[in-house]
Fold these 4 entries.
Entry 1:
Amino acid sequence: MTKEKEYLKKLLQPIALPGGRFLPSRILPGPMEGVMTNDYCRIMMEFDLLPAWITPFIRISEGTPRRKKLEGRLTPFHPIPIVAQIMGTYRGHLAATAGILSDLDGVLGVELNCACSSPTVVRSRSGSAHLRDPEWIRDTLLAMRDSAAVGGIGVKIRSGFESPDELPRILECVSAAKPDWIVLHYRTAKEMFRSVPDGYRRFETARRLLPETILFASGDMFTCEKSLEVVRKTAVDGITPARGLMHNPWLIRDLEAVCRGETPPERNVVPFLLRLVEFVAESPVWRTGLILEIARNVWGSDSERFKSLTKDPRPDAMLKNIRGMG
Ligand SMILES: Cc1cc2nc3c(=O)[nH]c(=O)nc-3n(C[C@H](O)[C@H](O)[C@H](O)COP(=O)(O)O)c2cc1C
């Protein structure tokens, strides 16, 4: 078997976690707060497009949420396996929350978000703000591990706060806590969503420094080719495409097909969008944001199909319009 084929096969292998749990695959969805709503979860699971979730962050502020509340937060993601992501400032509450979450039905593990670079989040000393104090990340992961009797403990980071030169020290601290996985978004917090020409080099650095740690890559995986190129060139263990799932909701299933040596079938987004409109129409509030966002990503904002959807965004009109696209 060629080296490339070995990589592809490996992407489909599960990852063992403490307590006999498993991440079912190494191709997992990158969380998207605001996008992964009830309707998004419903449509993605009805079309069977994901092996598991990494949820968008659950914000833990000045208290530990009750078990019932956390159960409620995870309701949209059932019944497929869940990695629950948390983000916050206070170690004690984060650790206690990890303990509760790891004990909930369907939860494989808990991931600490140290990657969100939204100015509000950073101002509240949360998300990527922790990259400036990697010892805090290490100690928080250790506290989460102590609190969670079973299940995996992971962390999502960026390559630095100000500069990718911070990456080695961040990795040294984080790996001292022996997380079950690290997701690395290759941009720094300061780079937000800007393009970075040396992104792959940052993955290579992480791989070189942490040859034994399960390392997931994040950043700009919009197609199968691009996603698999990252694995081939940088030898990361897994990938977490996020915005690419808006361009192609089948992206993860297509990647899995390629890893099995198959050619992904042609995909028709029309039945997907029709069903999504039905779901959104059943919700208490009619919101077209998600439908238009997916349509824009799939067809492009200049396409006639997208433009025609924006002209009459009432449910019946949208249904008729999309049905006509056949
Ligand atoms: C709308 C949106 C919401 C996001 N929410 C989260 C989040 O809740 N947790 C997280 O770890 N990353 C979040 N991300 C970051 C993505 O998971 C991912 O790391 C980033 O978009 C880069 O990957 P991509 O180029 O494949 O999208 C979000 C990204 C977007 C676009």
Entry 2:
Amino acid sequence: MIVDDVTIRVQAGNGGDGAVAFNKNLLQLGPVGGNGGDGGNVYAEGVAELDMLNQFRFKKDIRAADGERGKRQNKNGLDSEDIILKVPVGTVIHNLILKTDGEVTHIGERVLLAKGGMGGRGNFHFRSATNQSPKQFEKGTLGQSFDIRLELKLIADVGLIGLPNVGKSTLLNELTNAKSKVASYPFTTIEPNLGAYYELVIADIPGLIEGASQGKGLGIKFLRHIERTKTLFHLISAESPDPVFDYQTVRAEMKMHNPRLLDKDEYVFLSKCDNVASKEVEQKIKLLKKINPHAYPLSVLESETLDTIKTILNKIKDAKIAPIDKE
Ligand SMILES: Nc1nc2c(ncn2[C@@H]2O[C@H](COP(=O)(O)OP(=O)(O)OP(=O)(O)O)[C@@H](O)[C@H]2O)c(=O)[nH]1
Ligand SMILES: [Mg+2]
């Protein structure tokens, strides 16, 4: 099971204290205390693997090392190493102490979670004409420490939604390299799956049922994964006695979760059409078109219907690669 919401405590390293030391060599008396090193920072860095938050299931306390103390002979303490936490692209970072939000949107992007403290200056630094043997030094400053909530919100171009068992995973597997589990019973998919259709990322999320927004089934946990998806493909089974009712059930749950989900570009597909007489398919499409003019039949066994989907996906892909120049 993918961990997609976890709170951790990050503690950056403290800066090392500056040193107080004096040269024992009688010919070169004077202060020789070096500066302390800086404490390690803690960063998050984007990677493609969706399951990277699993690493925090049992390891919720992340601590970077403190900077080294300053040394004798005017040698500075070493800075300590940064900790870089790999998180899936699409991870939203909530700083629960500062009440700020950030996010990691692409692979290799680094976001600072906690800054390490600065090393203090040693007594060498405080020498002057009037004070040739200063005992002053600075303490290193404290590293930042925060409670951070990491929340994965997938960044997919197209999200497949619908009631359970309508063929979402089958379609994802048909169009992409994904190997989402398919079976003839509801709730086969228990966590999101992604697949790539050329430059587009398609997300398959667990089926939604009535009451999902109140926590029924698995859907609610995953609705947030379509919050940032631009286009939704809403699948409704042709075998349903009332496809319009199914459509409205899912839309009602989406609305309760976040009304803005309803504003997304939406295409409706009447799935498993091969299981139903063509006359019935026609009638059901007609009813659905009254709600959304972009309603089409779909069967993974009928290549024309897949061609329709591919044409739509190609349009979305072209718009993504070359955004229309409005000037
Ligand atoms: N005849 C026919 N069966 C299909 C078609 N698409 C999917 N199925 C079957 O429908 C069943 C459910 O398919 P899934 O792809 O697992 O459905 P899902 O919407 O992902 O289901 P959940 O993960 O439970 O929400 C499987 O037995 C599929 O083989 C289709 O176009 N025609
Ligand atoms: Mg599925």
Entry 3:
Amino acid sequence: MPDPGPSLSELIDMQIRANGPMSIASYMTLCLTHPRHGYYKQTDPLGARGDFITAPEISQMFGELIGFFCVNLWQQMGEPRSFTLLEPGPGRGTLMQDALRVATRAEGFGDALHLQLYETNEELKAQQAIRLSQYDPYWPGEIDAVSDDPLIVVANEFLDALPVRQFVRGTQGWHERLIGLKEGRRRFGLSPTPIPESAMPEAVRAAAPGEVYEVSLASVDVMQRLGKAAARRGGGILAIDYGYPRTRTGETLQAVRRHEFADPLEAPGEADLSAHVDFGALAEVTRKAGLTAQPLVTQGEFLRRLGIAERATALSRANPGEAAAIGAALDRLTGANQMGELFKVFCAASPGLVPPGFAS
Ligand SMILES: C[S@@+](CC[C@H](N)C(=O)[O-])C[C@H]1O[C@@H](n2cnc3c(N)ncnc32)[C@H](O)[C@@H]1O
């Protein structure tokens, strides 16, 4: 049998011994996307038997309403005869399959559609290829692969998978939280070099010693690139995730393994690492790119405004034997104690467009 080589845990520890403590972002990047051992490079993590379950895997209603959202935006954009629909992190392709089943009923939508899927996991890519083959999808190597036609982006639980850095407020400024080794075990510690207050966003400058500021430069980069592309070509970005509306202090890095919270420093590559999304920072980036950012809404509110209750009633009428399961899915997607309040919906679109599901 070929030598499997060092495990990810050993590789990380070797790197720390050679280079000193590493940032949380570097650690997350290795854990999630290391070419051989990264969590998202391995098998399918989704669903009841995986580590977590996502909204489109709970019910077809979720994707169907996003399909309606896409048609509505495309119509407001003047029904361009060619446009790109991009989904970063499409998982099993379930959301897009449900969305396009509905959206392609609108005349002209299917003919105009160029479907792009941005994905790192080969097994999930294979599932996407099967589910979405009839739409002839393309997997770009870069999230903002050049194309000149209008752009609609839909991302569910993608941004939370991008790495974050953490900074802890000290008495002399901010110190980056790093991962080092103590007595042979990985431990969190602080960089001794303070970062001046002026380098931090204004929203966190009044923080008390000990408070933590978390920032995802990778999310900001993705939103900047997509925001510029959508502003130049016309269109909009819809992102659904757990997160908060304004930049603030607070630490949210978490590890989930087989539906249970776990220690982020244990078993690298075997647990899903994620962090809540700073939608305030992303709104600012998209505004600077030339888009209009909508006030953030909760997932429950967004789905209700798009008519999820009516869709659940219609589905239950058509499938009376499934009515209880449909009711349970409705509750799970929109209930205040379930996904309805925790998950937020962000949208930034070309000025003049009125994305459905938002207050304005
Ligand atoms: C939490 S899953 C969500 C899947 C799907 N959107 C859903 O709602 O079921 C995250 C998705 O993003 C992909 N992903 C994570 N990090 C990525 C990266 N850096 N580049 C591209 N895709 C990534 C994963 O492989 C997976 O498809």
Entry 4:
Amino acid sequence: MKVIVLATLLFAAGIGQVSAQMMARGEVKFNACKACHQVGDNAKNTIGPTLNGLIGRKAGSVEGYNYSEAMKNSGITWTEMDLAEYIFDPKAKVPGNKMAFTGLKDKQAASDIIDYLHTFDKAPVKLRQ
Ligand code: HEC
């Protein structure tokens, strides 16, 4: 949703092709997550769960992934706002969760990553083989 709104705004401002550039930027920023998370057609749960279809999904719900109790019981259904908070400071957002990541303090980078993750909204969540 945010991607579409932004793209529309930028387009209206006469800057074509920006949304593709934004996607590319998000993909690069996603390198911060890639050591532990996969997205895309053949994504599998690795150190962390696959992030396909993340926005709108209940936290701790990818089948076959061994979540912490903290994540399973967080009561979160991931929105952009939850994600922004979690990426900024995972331990503060979900105390006791096991994501060994200190947080990304660059809010623009976090926002780019969230936009990038939106491109996997419709992809089915893959289960561990
Ligand atoms: C060092 C490995 C590591 C890195 C780097 C990492 N994560 Fe994670 N992530 C995990 C683990 C492990 C979990 C499972 C947490 C739990 O069960 O407590 C997780 C869980 C998550 C979840 C919850 C998923 C769900 O199904 O509810 C999200 C969202 C997430 N990570 C996003 C990110 C993003 C975005 C980045 C990059 C900015 C990132 N992570 C970087 C290891 C990592």
